[in-house]
Amino acid sequence: MNDMTKPSSLPQHTPTQRHARRLPLFDPALVKPAIVDSFRKLSPRAQLRNPVMFVVWIGSVLTTLLGVQALTGQGEAPAGFILGIAAWLWFTVLFANFAEALAEGRGKAQAAALRGSRRNVVAKKLAEARHDAEVEVIDSARLKKGDLVLIEAGDTVPADAEVLDGVASVDESAITGESAPVIRESGGDFSAITGGTRVLSDWLVARVTANPGEAFLDRMIAMVEGAKRKKTPNEIALTILLVALTLIFLMACATLLPFSLYSVKAAGGGSPVSITVLVALLVCLIPTTIGGLLSAIGVAGMSRMMQANVIATSGRAVEAAGDVDVLLLDKTGTITLGNRQASAFLPAPGVMEQELADVAQLASLSDETPEGRSIVVLAKERFGLRGRELHDAHFIPFTAQTRMSGVNIPTPAGAVREIRKGAAEAVKAHVEALGGQWAAAVNDAVEQVSRRGGTPLVVAEGRRVMGVVELKDIVKGGIKERFAELRAMGIKTVMITGDNRLTAAAIAAEAGVDDFLAEARPEDKLKLIRDTQAEGKLVAMTGDGTNDAPALAQADVAVAMNSGTQAAKEAGNMVDLDSNPTKLIEIVETGKQMLMTRGALTTFSVANDVAKYFAIIPAAFAATYPQLKVLDVMRLNSPDSAILSAVIFNALIIIVLIPLALKGVKYRALGAGALLRRNLLLYGLGGLIVPFVGIKLIDVVLGVLGLA
Amino acid sequence: MNASPFWQLGLYLAVLLALAWPLGRYLAHVLDGRLSSRYAWLGRFERGVCRLIGSDPNEDMPWWRYATAILLFNIAGVIAVYAVQRLQGGLPLNPSGMTAVEAGSAFNTAVSFVTNTNWQGYAGETTMSYLTQMLVLTVQNFLSAATALAVVIALIRGFVRRSAAGLGNAWLDLGRATGYVLLPLSLLFALFLVGQGVIQNFSAYRDVKLVEPITYQQQKTDARGQPLVDAAGKPVMETVKTDKQTLAMGPVASQEAIKMLGVNGGGFFNANSAHPFENPTPLSNFAQMLSIFLIPAALCFMFGRLVGDLRQGVALLAAMTLIFIAMFAVVQWSEMHANPLLTQLGVDGSAGNMEGKETRFGIVASTLFATITTAASCGAVNAMHDSLLPLGGLVPMWLMQLGEVVFGGVGSGLYGMLVFAMLAVFLAGLMIGRTPEYLGKKIEAYEMKMVSIAILITPLLVLGGTAVAVLSKAGLAGVFNPAAHGFSEVLYAFSSAANNNGSAFAGLSVNTPFYNILLGLAMWLGRFVPIVAVLAIAGNLARKPRLAVSAGTMPTHGPLFVVLLVGAVIIVGALTYIPALALGPVVEQLQLFGH
């Protein structure tokens, strides 16, 4: 029960900040620069990054040249037709560029919003690590790693720093969106302060931990901004597949020229297929839809994380989140509300319940933890006992060694009432050391409480055991349903708690987790992760303390709370600015969404090809083998119109799918089989049918406009 | 055999599964060394043989060592087959006095038999001595099948092993495949065939007196054997009357058994399984069809057993069977129609398209054989595929173009299908939002690269080769049939060679230096590029840990996966070949039937 009196500073997250950063999809402020960028990205160097679109780019250049040649009167087809094809090929490239530019623009806008909180401020540089040392006032940009600073009430924290002295309440809303202030003090898990946050009360002496521009968040934001975006492993694998598909179609189209030459000779009529038509066929067949949107999907995945106030160090981490098999969740703050509340007084034999309540309240008056406060409140509710002013009382704070807290009150008689409360074993040892008796009934009560999932807190006065206060964990509303969803997704949840087995089992049952690790020490956590990984599973966890760092480093997906220590943040591969451990579930979903979007669009892209064959093959060989007209199931206006319609459809579908690429395919908590069936129907079958309709419509429009 | 086509198909599949099931069990025991670890003497024997050839039996070869061993073994095979063909004139067992095979043809045949293609640019009874047939061609029938068995075993080890460096000992695998599987099965099957009337002798060719003399016309030849033409360039014909026929003899049964079981398909005679000495009775025909699919089907069961989940193997088998049934239905439907060009000439078309088919077998046994032999990479034929109607001819061609994964070759069918399974799993994995995994192994960039190479190489060879052929004079010289059918013949030849099938649209004359060399290259690359890629995948998979299965893992054993796998095979095949097929069989069919 070492976490019993841990300061409960886990903020209750509020979603207000998040909405502020959500921009409309086609926000004019983003669209305009994106359009400019789409043209800038036409440079061959930019295109080389994306092999599929590079092929389209070459096709555009080639058809443009053929069109120019046709204008001079010696083209292979009418100049209007060739230039029409060329124009739409250029649009295809531009649309893909636009999708990428738009995604990047959104990412940048989000990063800028984060950076906004990191303006330069005035820093009070200290000569020595003392509160009253000499102060030099400088610009925060000039602070270096290792500098000592004083931050007083009302000051903005000038840089990421480690508290050396002092205790202060800090408003971290600029970073976390959380309005309730948190306590920062030296030593332990709450000593890290982040630049841009504001000290509300008291003062802190801190040592700067990062040079300007290199602060942890700076680095993370830089990464998210896309400039340093590396392709994720699955993205690389998918790119290989797309290149392979492109090569297949390149062969299929390139060999069509000799085949066509032979056919013309064999059939004794018609003309061989033109280069323009072959390029059009090639561009329609290669997976331009996914090829054009692939990088936008990756960028958008990272921004979606940011929208959820999570900064991921790499796309790889986001992607890995989708693969997670086991979630390790801290009980406190994730599964249960951060605090336990007193729910009953169970007096020892020979003690009145009210007497116990009174003593327990006395012991808790100075205890500012939610647990302590709840004892005071319960005593008041049950017996009308009010908080009293205690003069001359000496409060005994909780320490890890004694695992007890309490109060020493001098009585008018000159004696001292030594009241203690704490874990059963600690109090038992304390009482027995004083020569007191440990009644069997107390043991029963302790066990009873544990079995119910509560935490027994034993209260003693001197060597007399007064009884047990039952602290109950309050399981968060709706958490059970979330776990059921995770189970359906094939993800196992494991609750980590310092509680004993009985308590842990009861809460685990109530919350509906699959497994739990009780009486967990940091090394137990690490071992659990290693063992789980050895079974071939991927593990995700959240953590905030320095002692979580090894486990965070070992886990495949490690989300550090922004409220946590620097060590924890460095060890993890994501930082949750809201410090909301339940966010892990959202992260997993975002990771899955990113992969699903890629898979869905690839399937859609490939399925599209069937219709395009039906449009282009009969058109391309209409002159040589008129019999192939039977395959023109869409009954298109003319061969030229058929080819142009297919190319236009191929370009427009990119624009149509940009919202899907940026928002991601909707994730549903279904088993793998059901999810696959659903997506296959939607994107596979849909991808088969949509282009038939689309190409026909475009053909009709072209006919109406008199272009066909 | 006039039974309804689907009764015959049903019977065929039922007997096939009944035989493949126990064989799969047997294969799982012998191929991965379970048997030799159970019986100590067998293990000692294996290790002894291994040391004899200078290999350390305990060596666990990394993938590239394994691949090198396989490649060297097969290069040695090519040299041996080439040498014996060239030297056969001076070697024993040559009662009919065959002379050295021409160099281009010998090269083509050597590659052809080593790559399990058994493409035959020659006619066996007029080219090869008995020694050549037995010592190199038959032996290579065994060894090429053993090669693919070793590769598939290595790939399965890649899936099964966790964080392992090696794939096993290639020599040991080759030996086990030959000694425990191919030899005993072939012995049994050869005896059965002899019982049905397949010949097995070393006699010289026999002249027999015809019951009725026969008169026919043939082109006159000059003293040097060159065909004569008159001043107008027309062939000079002469009328010949004969009452004699020469019957080719030879050790046929011993070669016939492995030709089918090893899914090789190279006939002893030019007429292949349409020849009565190779395939005398309806029962032998049925047994031959069974023997083509027997080991490929059993391998699926073996795969399931070795990976510890029989359903995984059954799913692959189901996918293969589904495609096979659908394809058979199309061929059967097509061949039930009469050829309109023949009915115009007054030929009775009520029996369907009988051109090029044996009356002994009829339509159903011929279409079933044609579908089986091209679904599997066998290439043995009991009817002439060139005479199938366009749509009926499209199916065998397309079955080869699918990559010979519908049952496919011994071993190569399974590893080919597993490559497609990885492709299907990759797309499906993305669609459910997880890094794709198959049998607990993550399918990542490296695997996708190798999968791409394995899948890309054959279209490159087929389409590229066909393009070269129809562009070049030497290529066009072999095309006898006009128009779209001529194109189909060239396309068929390259599809057959690059996918290691070996059957042909015989209207194309391929025993020319151009085709011998180009097709030889296509066969070699179409065989060994995928093998190296598959072994590279196996090596990389073996190094990975095996992930646990959860509800979030995509199941790869249910109907959904079967549909997905079928879809992957069909879509890749369709997208690659639709344009080419449109200019060949599709337009032919429309010209013939569309009005």
In short:
The complex is a heterodimer of chains A (708) and B (595). With 708 residues, chain A is α+β, with helices and mostly antiparallel strands.
Structure, described:
Chain A: It is found in: Cell membrane. Chain A: It is a multi-pass membrane protein. Chain A: Its EC number is 7.2.2.6. The complex is a heterodimer of chains A (708) and B (595). Chain A is α+β, with helices and mostly antiparallel strands and 708 residues long. Chain A is 51% helix and 17% strand. Chain A is built from 25 helices and 22 strands. In chain A, the strands form four sheets. In chain A, strands 10-22-21-20-11-18-19 form a seven-stranded mixed β-sheet, with helices on both faces. A six-stranded antiparallel β-sheet of chain A has the order 2-1-3-9-4-7, with no helix packed on it. The longest helix of chain A is centred in the C-terminal third of the chain and has 38 residues, at 583-620. Chain A is elongated, with a radius of gyration of 34 Å. The relative contact order of chain A is 0.11. Chain B has 595 residues and is mostly helical. Among the domains of chain B are: 19-204 and 250-280, no CATH class; 206-247, no CATH class. Chain B has 20 helices and four strands. A two-stranded antiparallel ribbon of chain B has the order 1-2. In chain B, helix 7 (130-160) packs parallel to helix 19 (513-543) and helix 14 (390-401) packs parallel to helix 18. Chain B is globular, with a radius of gyration of 24 Å. The model of chain B has no long low-confidence stretch (mean pLDDT 91). The chains are: A alpha+beta (708), B mainly alpha (595). Chains A and B meet through helix 8, helix 9, helix 23 and helix 25 of A and helix 15, helix 16, helix 18 and helix 20 of B.
